Amino acid sequence: MEDNPRFQITSKQSIFFIIGSTVATGILSLPRVASADAGQDGWISVILGVCAPLISLLLIERLGRLFPNLTMVEIAQLLFGKFLGSVITAGFIAYMIFFQSIVLRLIAEITAVFALPKTPTSVIALLSIISVIYIAQKGAKVVGRLNELLFYILLFDLLLLLPPLKVADYTNLLPVGGAGLTAIVKGALPTAFAYEGMEVLLIIYPMVTKKNEVLKAGVTALGIAMLIYLMATVIALLVFGAEILQHIIWPTVVLFKVVDVPVIERLEVFFLAFWMGLVSRPVMNMCFASSYSLTRLLKLDMEQYYSYMVILVGLSIYVVALIPDNIVQTFKFATYGGYAFFIAAIGYPLLFHLAAFLQKGKVKQYA
Amino acid sequence: MMMKLLKKLFRKRRAVTSKKNQNNYSGEIKLPRDLAKKMQMLRPYIEKNSDIISRPFLITEAENLQAVAIYMEGIIDTAALNRDVLKPLMLNASREQLEKKGTNHLIDRIYQTSLTVGRVIKVDTFPALVQNIFDGLTILMFDGLAEVLAVDIRGGESRAIEEATAEKTLRGPREAFIESLIVNIALIRRKLRDPNLVVEKMVLGKRTRTEVAFLYIDDIADPQIVAEVKARVARIDIDGNVVPGYIEQLIEDNPYSVFPQIEETERPDKVMAHLLEGKIALLADGSPFAAILPSLFVQFLQASEDYFDRTYIGSFLRAIRYIAFFLAISLPALYVALLSFQQELIPFDLIVSLAENRKAVPFPVAVEALLLELIIQITIETGLRLPTPVGQTVGVVGGIILGQAAISANLASPAIVIIISVTTICTFAIPVQSMALATRILRLPLLVFAASFGVFGFSLGWLLILAHLASLESVGVPYFAPFAPTRFADLKDSFFRTFIYKMKNRPVSIPVQDRQRQASTGRKDKNNGR
Fold first, then answer.
1. How far apart are alpha carbons A173 and A233 in whole angstroms?
2. Is B349 within 8 Å of chain A by CB?
3. Is residue A310 part of a domain?
4. Could you tell me if residue A367 is inside a domain?
5. Is A275 in contact with B459 (Cβ distance < 8 A)?
6. For residue A356, is it within any domain?
7. Over 60: is that where the pLDDT of B175 sits?
8. Of the partner residues B4, B453, B486, the one whose CB lies closest to the CB of residue A152
9. CB burial class (10 A; 0-12, 13-18, 19+) of residue B326?
10. CB proximity A135 to B under 8 Å
11. φ and ψ at B156, to 5 degrees?
């Protein structure tokens, strides 16, 4: 287990850590993505989509039980040897950086569209990454607390999704199951991408103080994430209908524009005020997780070098985020990121399990 | 990163200075038996300081015993000196009587039979003798006896106990601390008669030698926190200026934060309440304030009335204060962000009237806001230091006349004057001054953020503030506690306050040994029936 209290989190915080890493920019486009194949049954796809992260959760939790006190870097080096293990973890860190750079780019793009049309996205991304670096370098304890706090604050954001129900048309959901089983299952694949980020558990597992509660925490986290996604998708479907949804890039944001509320008229202002808190969570969680692993991988002193690693990781996220030329290319990258999610969240733990199975002797020493 | 580097530099520097300034009185010089020799040693001090009085006298009867009393004028209680020290020694004591037990015990006999004073110390080294004189004790030296007696009859003038000025209350006790440590401790003892209330004293400040007292309830306060606080205070190596304000800055966890991490209060009843929650109070002689350790964020938005008034009223006031805290930091920023970036988010009729008002103003909103903000900050600062009647005039001239004139001269729009005034009023709704000051500072960077990036900047600014709050700790206790990390049990005394009878346990945010505050039979619950 991690001894440094700066890098310890409670099992309750691990729930919010997972939710924070998962629910962010994905929720803004999910209604469109889910209903692309499944049409009015997109919400069923959202429910099915949770299977992939659930499998990943079970695999990671099993793996964690085998080596409760080892970090991912140590497990990899134990099972695959010094060199190969390092390469494997380096791959995971690279994946996290790649994934977060897409999220960062999306944050910048969406902000530009809805709040700052004249400001270049590179400036918005820079500002965001600087604040992420500030937060991530404070360590797991603070990141965990912040995830917890932001979760409760953002529940308020979900309430903002309710007023648009005024113009809801329930016939938009009918006929239930009309899209056909194959379409629904096909639609479930991209919705599974929305849970990208939960694989951070692979890194934070050794930091959780009560290991026996991790599984419960993980299931709770995925359940809450699924409910949030379900709510957004159902409301968007009710308001817009599956066909119109396909023409709206960020349906969840547009939802706020649909209705006028007395006195304040626009709900968007509340949404925008919480905006950075909502979307920067995965970047700060992953930035923290990859800096932590990188420091471990390079065998550097945590107290001394961790903060430098955060800056290094943060800047590389920023640089990669500038690579896509436009939003279309960013979405393409995001799809690659989605496939990479399957490799990272299911492939990695499976590989580890396989190696552990083949070398039972080594496992027994650490059980 | 920079912070860390600075910290390292700072630490090294501190270590070096502490080595240099070692105690001046390090040698252990024993006192001679001869009175004249003792006086000879003390001469440099007595000659240089005209307020040190030496009063020779004789202990009478057959063979005279020469003696000298040395004390500092004004610090001791002169009546007590005459009544309890000089009179019994000069009139009632005799050497014969005293010597019945032999010369070795003479000093003890004097102490036992002829001094009608409570606290007397026996001193036999020269440095201790000098120190005791300057600590304000009265020294009695005798011919032929190496040991001297230091009698504590300190007294003299001090301020009377008055009504609290910085933390006024409508209901509840009025008295406030004064500058005397002994009186202040007595004020707390009078309210808290628990035999487990511990008062530990320590002397701080190499030159000022200020007495500092730790107060805590032994079977409630967490021993680890008590030890930590004591260790941190003991590490202080400073020449003087030992007041809670200094001590706080020397022992707090995050010196680079704008948020106050240790609360100061001048009200004994508040200290008592905190002691009962398992916290530690730190008092210093010469300061009418007590520092509370550890202090949490919620504490800075609590006022005594919240508990004295009915629950609904208390909760309402709490909620208002939290809103005021939020507005005090963010109202100008929000206004600037909406008006200069997100006009479409303002209701149509409102934006029309705002634009109408602003059309003659030559500056951008951000400049207007910054300018007015600056003026109001200067006005507050000016009003604070001036004598009351003048201060009020400044307030009226600065606030009303200037604002009105600025509007008529088209230098500011009425809306911004309202915004800045409301913000300023919100600042004053925060009960603890140090937190109010923090909001006054935080407002400016948030305004700049909002002026450059609109609502996005505003949201980024608040994220950073929340992250910062979540990272703070006070003596190792999470500062932003019932919110992050979320502790549901403690939320009942945060932005609202539940019924007193429901606060059966002490807050979980602060580690304590004894959780229970009320027995469950304290008040019958509804279900139990009457």
1. 11
2. no
3. yes
4. no
5. yes
6. no
7. yes
8. B486
9. middle
10. yes
11. 80, -170
Q: For this complex, say whether ipTM is above 0.90.
A: yes
CA pair distance B224, B216, nearest whole angstrom = 13
Kindly report the CATH number assigned to the domain that includes residue A49: 1.20.1740.10
**How many structural domains are present in chain A?**
1
Q: Do B463 and A280 touch (CB under 8 A)?
A: yes
Residue B100 has pLDDT above 80, yes or no: no
A359 part of a folded domain: no
Gap between the Cα atoms of A20 and A264, Å rounded? 29
Using one digit for the tens of pLDDT, what is the confidence trace for B431-484?
998 999 999 999 999 999 999 998 899 999 999 999 999 999 999 899 998 888
The pLDDT assigned to A221 comes to 93
Q: Which of A146, A152, A272 sits opposite B455 (nearest CB)?
A: A272
As a whole number of angstroms, the distance between CA A173 and CA B233 comes to 67
B234 burial (CB, 10 Å; 0-12 / 13-18 / 19+) is exposed
Q: Are A33 and A111 in contact (CB under 8 A)?
A: no
Concatenate the DSSP letters of all residues of A262-315 into one string: TTTB-SHHHHHHTHHHHHHHHHHHHHHHHHHHHHHHTT--HHHHHHHHHHHHHH
Q: Which two tokens stand for residue B108?
A: 């003890």
pLDDT digits (tens, 9 = 90+) for B246-289: 999 999 999 999 999 999 999 999 999 999 999 999 999 999 99
Which of the four pLDDT bands, split at 50, 70 and 90, describes residue B97?
A: low
Give me the count of residues in chain A. 367
**Cα A39 from Cα B17, distance rounded (Å):** 74
B163 is written with which tokens?
Answer: 């009504």
